Amino acid sequence: MVTRRSVVLGIAAVGGFLAADLGAVLYARGPLGSRGRLTPQKFVDAFHEVAGVHPGYRLNHAKGVAVSGFFESNGAGAEVTKAAVFRTGRTPLVGRFSVPGGNPTVADTVNAPRGLGLAMGYPGDGQWRTAMLNLPVFQDNSVQGFYDRLLASRPVPGTGKPDPEAMAHFLAVHPETARAMTAIKRQPLTSGFADSTFRGLNAFYFVNADGDRTPVRWSLSPMREVKPPGKSSNDPNMLFDTVIRDIRTGPLRWRLLVTVGEPEDDVRDATIAWPADRRTIDTGTVVLDSIATEAAGNGRDVNFDPMVLPDGIEPSEDPLLPARSAVYAASFRRRAGVAGAVPQVEAQQVEQ
Questions:
Q1: Taking the mean position of all CA atoms in its chain, how far away is CA 135?
Q2: Active-site annotation, residues
Q3: Residues contacting 107, CB < 8 A, separation 6+
Q4: Which of 115, 159, 205, 308 lies 20 to 30 Å (CA to CA) from residue 314?
């Protein structure tokens, strides 16, 4: 179950949302909300058109389970950032495993992307939030591209599946997404959340105590053995049930790796992987030692806005970042305080 430490941290994380939400609203009234441009409400409408309306749930990654634990920093990250979380020592965190989509009752599949959101530290001490996926690259490099792909994935009445012609047309217009999807399909599947590598995908800047500004991307590399998917299962919650049992057996650990970009690496395009020979800094270990059904005070109530950053971490020029922040805020406001959203993953009902 979630500890008292994680409950307090979760409540603090919710409080920290207010400042982040203000920034998102201001952005929405700027370029994103200008006449003739995409707005957060248009994204809300698009998610509803694709997955239906589910009050009280997130617009995307609606199905999830709450986790908590800590980050044990080894101090190596202090070379490139003055963020307190990278000083030697332990920082508490809350998080959430999830799968994409706005339908909270969607059945798990081994080939569906897996998400992990983390909020490290307390808002007053410079909290850091990150929303990661187990993908090598992101599918889109523009706000319009993401929106168009979302609409192209609308299920067709009668089949319940996207129109293949609509998606083919989208990919013809967006070759960057076609290339990204090819890279994603080449990535070997793993057995579940516990042995997945999670990546932030968007680039950021780390700023150290001397004011040096370094482009970076980060990832979580699993410390347990990576295995291929097991036998097919009729369990609609197979991924979540497995990770619940995993954490009950013992803490799960990942290495938090920071990849240092070179001047020629594009910080604006999340569909392009940086070269494999880029320098990587092992900054410490993320440990998840508690898992629970989503409820008040844990990861359920955290907006994993990637623009909530501590002193020492700054956003890059990637256009997806401010747009994600604005849409995340819209999703948070719509579900905040809505009663009756029944958790689709009941941790306490999973047998060991």
A1: 11
A2: 61
A3: 236, 237
A4: 115
Residue 84 gets which letter from DSSP?
A: G
Mean per-residue pLDDT, 166-179:
97
With CA atoms as reference, report the closest residue to 37 among 314, 329, 326: 326
Q: How far is CA 327 from CA 20, 33, 123, 189, in A?
A: 12, 11, 21, 29
Per-residue pLDDT tens for 34-45? Answer: 346 899 999 999
Cβ(97)–Cβ(240) under 8 Å? yes
pTM of the model: 0.90
Q: Which residues are within 8 A (CB) of 23 and not within 5 positions of it... i.e. 6 or more apart?
A: 307, 325
At 197 the three-state DSSP class reads coil
Q: 207 - beta bridge partners? A: 213
132: Cβ contacts below 8 Å, ≥ 6 apart: 115, 116, 117, 118, 198, 199, 200, 201, 219, 220
Question: Angle 175-186/164-173 helices, nearest 10 degrees?
Answer: 110
